[in-house]
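Cell division protein FtsX structure dump, as promised
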Amino acid sequence: MKFRTFGRHLRDALKSLVRNGWMSIASVSAVALTLLLVGSFTGILLNVNKLASDIENDVSVKVYIDLGTDQTNQDALKAALAAIPDVESITFSSRDEELNKIVGSYGDEFNLFGGDANPLYDAFVLNTNKPESTKAVAEAASQLEYVAKVEYGGATADKLFATIATIRTIGLVIILGLLLVAVFLISNTIRITIFSRSTEIEIMRLVGAKNAYIRGPFLIEGALIGFIGAVIPTVFLVFLYNFIFDVSGAYLAGTNFGLLNPNPFLIYITLLMMGIGIVIGSFGSVFSMRRFLKV
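structure tokens r here:
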């Protein structure tokens, strides 16, 4: 398309948007509401997936050391644990540190068990490369010498991993379903707009305009409708997400959990919604015109 022709089509598209005011508003509203739904659910599901991954990665294996194990044997046990496949890191936690964790969670009355009265074990805390390897690492660690017991959550952790996998699958299906709904709603709304202007298209054909020339203004008009319809929900979601991110930060401070950082998450959401709006708007116009351009 030549630049001069593009400029003419752009002017015609803008005039058409103004001339068909109510239909343009209806189309933009349909695009905005549909993309608001798509953007909201996409943001929710991506953050659910992020939190699920945080929970998944927070699961660790705790290996309790036999009471009376000297430093030499502790070092040997640590080396043996490090040799287990998929062990990423090992952290030592003394029995006093274990007691402090209990005091912090359940109250100062547990300080009675301090000093020689402390019944807890020294422990090694193992993090794995893959959360799914937690069970295998725990089983391997339990076979080693100087190990009193091993904890990793057992059936609870297995159920957690299965639930997270289900959430991810369902989330992907919902997002794909919403995108298909968006395509259907936006294309049909634009089709109604074009149908109301079938006489205008017929006149252009009668005066000898080529199909490509006729499509031009409608292609640009559809892209503009998609763009404007995407801007409105995008601005709303940017302000809303920044607010939710700031509020959640206060509640999740000090934990290993958190929402996706607005930068670059909001950039990706903005590009996604703009792309969906423009592509569906422009090509929806072209596809909806086919019946009017048949010879």
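The chain has two domains: 3-56+160-292, 60-152.
lmk if u need the other ones
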